[in-house]
Amino acid sequence: MTLKALVLCCTLKPSPAESSAELLGREVLTALADHDVTGEVIRVVDHDVKFGVTTDEGGGDEWPAIRAKLLDAQILVVASPIWLGQPSSVCKMVLERLDAELSETDDQGRLLTFGKVAAVAVVGNEDGAHQVTASVLQALNDVGFTAAANASTYWVGEAMKGQDYKDAGPKPDTTGAATKTLAANAAHLAHLLAGSPYPAS
After folding, report:
1. CB-based contacts of 32: which residues, under 8 Å, 6+ apart?
2. Count of C-beta atoms within a 10 Å radius of residue 65
3. Domain NADPH-dependent FMN reductase-like, which positions (predicted)?
4. Full domain range(s) for residue 182
5. pLDDT digits (tens, 9 = 90+) for 96-130
6. pTM for this structure?
7. Is 175 inside a domain boundary?
8. Which residues of the chain have pLDDT under 50?
């Protein structure tokens, strides 16, 4: 069975600016392809996503179209940079929009996100990768997503320096290994949940 993944890139930079968060998100997609998972990357700031906590904030809100792709996928990867030790403001906005999923259920009372696997990719030039991962995975779990073992990958540059992941030259084996593990475990869990959904509430 071929599964789908959606990477929501939460960089602050609109296209066509280069983004380290997008680069790492695409590397996750490449690794997922080895496990019968296809997918795409959406750079959230390229879309008119409104602030709010509903599935559709109206007024040209483009979240509903992104949400439709999210609901069609079995794996969600949130790729975020670190700013001041925190997930980006775009990432936090995405999590706020996902809060609406707590009110959306199927005919058996299950959240529509049940059975979907969450993973996180983080980049930054300061400490904070673990905090960002913990915050994002906890929020995604709160709204119904399931995290696989080692469901994160990250790269953090030297403190007080300005080098980005996209400019780091040869990538560290540690990040590459974490990305491969994330992909293998997320795909494995997604395949299992696709074949054996969570029970009705």
Report:
1. 5, 39, 75, 183, 186, 187
2. 12
3. 4-150
4. 3-195
5. 999 999 999 999 999 999 999 999 999 998 789 99
6. 0.95
7. yes
8. none
Report the number of distinct structural domains present in the chain. Answer: 1
The per-residue pLDDT for range 165-177, each reduced to its tens digit, is 888 766 668 899 9
DSSP bridge pairs for 119: 77
Asked whether residue 35 is assigned to any structural domain, the reply reads yes
Block residue for tokens 């996902």: 98
SS (H, E, C) the chain: CCEEEEEEECCCCCCCCCCHHHHHHHHHHHHHHCCCEEEEEEEHHHCCCCCCCCCCCCCCCCHHHHHHHHHHCCEEEEEEEEECCEECHHHHHHHHHHHHHHHCECCCCCECCCCCEEEEEEEECCCCHHHHHHHHHHHHHHCCCEEEEEEEEEEECCCCCCCCHHHCCCCCHHHHHHHHHHHHHHHHHHHHHHHCCCCCC
Structure tokens at 137: 């995975």
Q: Is residue 201 part of a domain?
A: no
| Residue 200 falls inside a structural domain | no
Residues 6+ apart with CB under 8 A from 24: 79, 121, 122, 123, 153, 154, 155, 165, 175, 179
Return the structure tokens found at 165: 């992941």
Kindly give, in sequence order, each residue whose CB lies less than 8 Å from that of residue 137, ignoring residues fewer than 6 positions away.
Answer: 118, 120, 147, 151, 152
Per the structure block, which two tokens stand in for 122? 């983080």
Domain CATH code at residue 61:
3.40.50.360
Tell me if 123 sits within 8 A of 82, measured CB to CB: yes
